[in-house]
Design goal:
The chain is an alpha+beta fold. It has helices at 18-39, 44-48, 91-98, 102-109, 156-160, and strands at 113-114, 117-124, 138-143, 146-152, 165-169. Strands 1, 2, 3, 4 and 5 form a 5-stranded antiparallel beta sheet that branches. Residues 36-46 have low confidence and may be disordered.
Length: 180
């Protein structure tokens, strides 16, 4: 039997076998994680269920991390509400499509837009799915089920309604943090 020393040179109060120690650590860790995730579901968030994040790829956030929902001003005066017709379209892209001056809106919000085309990432239902035809999409790059394309601004909402499309969003761009 091995004796484990934790944080000091004094003998432990309880001597455990290595396999039993590992099993105890795994059980306690899973209980702690289960309690932490269950405690996050309170109030109105409990009805919505846990939030799932997209898998890795172009501009995907860190998978497996959780954060509290952002505090959003429900009455944003200058932005029209997102219609139910385009639920798989990122809100900034919907706002761009209804903006009176798309070029200035795109510049203010960091969206790559030029001559009526916008650079977006389309999350397809499967990695082998083809891009929907008839939308004048110019494929730039494909990684798994995510495809970066140049798409006409007017086709984004109808494109998001296609069965092969899970979500359409703006690709994330790397940023510089701190002094150069």
């Amino acid at each position: 039997m091995l004796t484990f020393y934790y944080f000091s040179n004094r003998p432990p109060l309880i001597r455990l076998r290595p396999a039993l120690t590992l099993g105890l650590v795994l059980v306690l860790t899973s209980l702690a994680l289960g309690c932490a995730s269950a405690s996050n579901l309170t109030g109105r968030d409990a009805a919505a269920g846990p939030t799932t994040l997209p898998s890795g790829g172009f501009g995907a956030p860190n998978v497996g991390t959780t954060s509290p929902p952002p505090q959003v001003d429900e009455q944003a005066p200058d932005l029209p509400p997102k219609p139910a017709a385009c639920p798989k379209l990122e809100s900034v892209l919907h706002q761009l499509s209804v903006a009176s001056d798309p070029a200035s809106f795109a510049q203010q919000h960091g969206v790559n837009y030029e001559a009526g085309l916008v650079r977006v990432v389309i999350d397809l239902h499967t990695p082998t799915a083809a891009l929907p035809a008839g939308y004048q999409l110019k494929e730039e790059r494909r990684l798994g089920r995510q495809v970066r394309v140049l798409a006409p601004l007017s086709s984004l909402c109808p494109l998001s309604e296609q069965a092969a499309v899970d979500f359409i969003h703006v690709p994330l761009t790397p940023g510089v943090f701190g002094p150069g």
